[in-house]
Structures are given as C-alpha cells and as structure tokens.
Records
---
Amino acid sequence: MTRDQGSGVRGQGYLSTKRWMREGLVATCGCALLLVAGCRQDMQNQPKLIPQRGSEMFADHRGARPQVVNTVARGQLREDSYFYTGVIQGANGYREEQNLLPFPATLEVLKRGQERFNVYCTPCHSRVGNGLGAIVDRGYKPAANLHDQVRMAQPVSHYFYVMTHGYGAMPDYSAQLTPEDRWAVAAYIRALQLSQAATSADVPGGTQVRELKDIAEAKHLPAGFADPWKLPPTAIQAYPPVTKEGYPAMAPANPADPAIKIPATKPAPAAAQSKPATPAAQ
Ligand code: HEC
C-alpha cells in the first residue's frame, strides 16, 4: 500500500504504534456500534401506541382514544359560548349576532383593540378603517369601509364573527387573535366609527378640538393631507356584487369589464402614482 510504504521510510517503531492505534480504534467503534444496535432493538420493539395506527390493546383496535363522554379536558371548558362564538341560539333556531360585548369596554380594552387593529387590519382597512389600505392600493379587493351605513348598522359581534371566520375575500384572523383580542378589536371598531363621525358636541365641554386640516397645515404636511384619499391607478376593481342573489363583490378583477383598469406592466409616470393632491389654495 502506498501509505504504508511511505511511512515505512520513517522506521518500524513508528509504524507499529500507528497500526496498534488504528486497530484499537476499530475495535472500540465496533463494540460501541454493537451496544447501540442492541439498545435500539429494545427501544424499537417496546409496546407503545403510534399516532394514527391501530392497536391490539383496546377492544375497538383504535390507537387514538376517543374523548371520554361527558368529560371536558382541563382548560377546554367553553361555557360562555357567546364569548367564543359571537352568536347566540335565536328563538327561531338560527344563530343570532348581538350588539353586546361580553366584557366592559374599558380604556385598556380599547387600547389593546387599537394596537391589534393597527397590526392586523390596517394593511387592508387602513388606520381609519375606510377600506383603502396599502394592500388594496396594490390591487387587492377593496376592503369594507367600516364607516358606511351597512357596516355602522351591524351588531358588534358581527365584527367578531368576521374576524373568526373571514368574509368573502377577507381571510380569518382566528389564529392571530385570541377571542379576547377579537372582542377588543370589535370594540375599537365602534370607537373608530364614533371618531370618524364625531362633532365637537361629542367631547366633554372645555376640551380643545382642532381640525385635522389645521394640524396638517401647522406641521407643514403636503396640501390635501387631511382630505379623503382615492385609490391609485394600481388598484384593481372587483366584480360588482350581485345584490339580487346576495353575493358580495368578488376579487380578482373581471378583465372583460371596461370600467376595470388592469395595472400597466410598465410603471406609470411618478406623478400619476402619488395620491391625488388638491390645490393648495383653500
Ligand atoms: C388582506 C386584507 C384584509 C385584512 C388584513 C382584513 N380585512 Fe376585513 N375585509 C377585507 C375585504 C377584502 C373585505 C370585503 C370582503 C368582500 O366583500 O369580499 C373585508 C370586510 C370586512 C368587514 C365587513 C364584513 C361585512 O359584513 O361586510 C369587516 C367588519 C372587516 N373586514 C373587519 C376586519 C378586521 C377587524 C380585520 C383585522 C382583524 C380585518 N378586517 C382585516 C380585507 C381584509
């Protein structure tokens, strides 16, 4: 062997020590392997239940055991079904939404709702809840305007229900928001609705009320900053609703409809993409 020949040049003593070490190592490894294999056999063949597999241990031969009738696992008692579902069983047998929060709407609850709303709902509904969020700007179906007459008239548990199950093009948020957080967001939507239609009569006497327009001007924000904004040309209109059959408007766009603009492949000139600015002189 080339290696042995090579090392043979250095002398016999060195060579035999090396061989002795190598053989020792092989023997140790071999023993260790045998031991490990022995262990594995034992653990591998021990009686146990494997998920989704049958078992000879039970009469029905099912490894996964059904829940014991009339028992509730610890921490899974959902006695307050309105808190978890947002609906009650109506007299006519149908589920009914209620204009009722299952706990008092304290300032703490509203703050939590605001924080969660700004994280999860703002991308589509915008911070003020008008449905023209940044995702919609880029071509998602316009999200509901939470200040239109239909949305204002909905009971507060409807918002909870929508967050729990999704609605039309809107995904559900039950994985992201705990039931408690969903109620907090629902309560905050009510606060938003009040804020967007509030008059100076709604605030306690003596409180100074300033117009957003004036604040924007004082802060030298761009003209038209406080005006309602429109969707940019990048946004896509959805199929119109079929009111007769109760279908909501559907995304994505219907390209056959001439009223619908598909975004150009080439980016539009910068001026056309920015939000429409109203003349500065007012
Ligand atoms: C990915 C975008 C998106 C996000 C994020 C989103 N929504 Fe929506 N939402 C929509 C769209 C789109 C609609 C309209 C659905 C339709 O008509 O198909 C809608 C509709 C609604 C409606 C009206 C339902 C009705 O009965 O008309 C409510 C209330 C609502 N959303 C609340 C929320 C809340 C609260 C959150 C945050 C937890 C949220 N949405 C997050 C896209 C979104």
---
Amino acid sequence: MARYQFRDTTRIGPVEIGTFTDRYGREAHAAACTAPGCDWSASYLNRPAAELAARSHRCNPR
Ligand SMILES: [Zn+2]
C-alpha cells in the first residue's frame, strides 16, 4: 500500500524536506532528520515553516 508521495524534496544539512498531500487532501510539508540515531521529524502546513525548522534543528545529543 502506497504511503505518502513526496515531491520537491530538498535537503538542509541532515534534514530532508518533502511536500506531500495528507489524508485530508491538504498540502503538507514534512521535515525529517536523516542523521543516524536522530529520529526527529515534524510536519508543517507551509514550506517556509518546514525549512525554518530544518535550519534550526540540532540533533539531540544523548
Ligand atoms: Zn537530527
């Protein structure tokens, strides 16, 4: 079963951003950190918010 189809993916540091359509048919923007051991991710209603979150994200040292 297909999950979200991401488009316009970009990368800011270790964080990837992708635009997708959520299950309500709205456009949403996900930011997810790809660094090993960091499972931070979040979704936003607009692209600048996702990009800002990606830029300000700092991997959580344990
Ligand atoms: Zn991280």
---
Amino acid sequence: MSNMNLTLKIWRQKDSKSKGKMVDYKVSDISEHMSFLEMMDVLNEQLINKGEDPVAFDHDCREGICGMCSMFINGEAHGPDRGVTTCQLHMRMFKDGDTITIEPFRAKAFPVMKDLVVDRSSFDRIQHAGGYISVNTSGNTQDANALPIAKEAADKAMDAATCIGCGACVATCKNASAMLFVGAKVSQYALLPQGQVEATERVQNMVKQMDLEGFGNCTNTGACEVECPKGISLETIARMNREYLTASIKG
Ligand code: SF4
Ligand code: FES
C-alpha cells in the first residue's frame, strides 16, 4: 500500500476557559506502519515549522501501559481498533483520502485543559479514596506469598488490575459513568485476602468520591466494555455492586 494523504479535523481549545472548535489540517505521506501518535507527531512538526501552535495531546509510554493517550477518534475512544490504546492504533486502520475526526475524551468530570488534553485527576481522587491496602510494616509482616490464593481468584484479580485508568469507559458511556473503572479497582482487592481488611470502607468511599466528581449513573449499556482497551469485564461492575450492598448492610 502506498503512503496516505489525510484530512484531520481536530478539536483546538486554547485553555480550559476558552471555547474550542474543530480545525481542519492536511497531512501527507503517512505510512500505514506509523502509529496514530506518530502521525500526530508529523502534523505537529509541520505546525511547528510554520510557526503555529502544535496540537497538545497526552502521551507517555506509547506502549499501552500508562493510559495517557486519550483521543476520541472518529467517534470512538482510542479509535476504530479493538483492545488497543491510541498509541497502539496503527495507521493501517485508515486509507488514503480519509477524513479523521479527533476530539478529547468528553465528560463533565474530565474538563478539557488544552486541545486534546483533559484533566483526569478525578480518577486519582477516587483511587486515593480507597484504592489501596494498608500493610503492617513493623517487621513481623507476613510474606504475601505465604497466603494461598485460589487460581481463579488470582486470575480474576489480575485481570481487574490490568485497568490502566485511561478513561475510555467514561468517554464512551452516554452517561459518562465511571463504573467500569471503579468496578475494576474494587474487584482487584475484593478478590484477594489482602483486600478484605478495608473492604467495607473501600467500596463506600470510592463510590462516594465517584459521585462527588460528577460521573453519571450506569444504565447497563455495556459500551464501556466494548471500548475498554484492556478488556475489563462488566462482571467487575456486578462485583462492585455486590460489595457495595454488603457494605451497606454491615453499615
Ligand atoms: S476500565 Fe478500561 S476503559 Fe476504563 S479506565 Fe480502565 S482500562 Fe480504561
Ligand atoms: S501513551 Fe501510554 S497507553 Fe498510550
């Protein structure tokens, strides 16, 4: 396949106070082997050479681990491929002459800071509210490996722990619900003995913080699961709801 010429329609917004708008750009000679972010680098180099402001976007690891690359591409979080983040999306998913729309992840709890960069510190505050365990480090601490854990529980906890906090679930959900993210974080601990000590407060505090941050309610559309780059299952939401109910009964 020969290289591609593309039209990009990109959300430009100076800062959190300004009104944004879509702006058209052309990029040419884009290889199908490039990642989506490399294509964005080509555009930014072009803009810098012309003395224009490059498009601000978040990125860090560029290998699907950090969860920073939050782009809404052609109406989908992380673009048209499945099970990938934007940095893992390849230009071979597009064809010569395509127009690609690129927007930030949109949610009340993720305010736009500039262009495609959103503030996801609401996720951090949910984590701080309960996404941890306390360990006695007095010197008599039990070796974690001395605790036998059923293989199924260990596997499911590990699956939940693969959530990278990217926010695609929120951006995809018509209610901007964060239930898949919080479900993953609660499940990660609920399945392990180390998570039992603080289980009651954890689920209550994390759900409380989620509501305070302005995330919407879950209406079981399942869109989050489809767009999650890490394949986090809706089962985690069901587990969180069970944990929440148990915590409410316990008081
Ligand atoms: S649940 Fe999936 S989509 Fe949501 S933050 Fe975690 S990895 Fe991203
Ligand atoms: S840049 Fe780290 S997940 Fe995409």
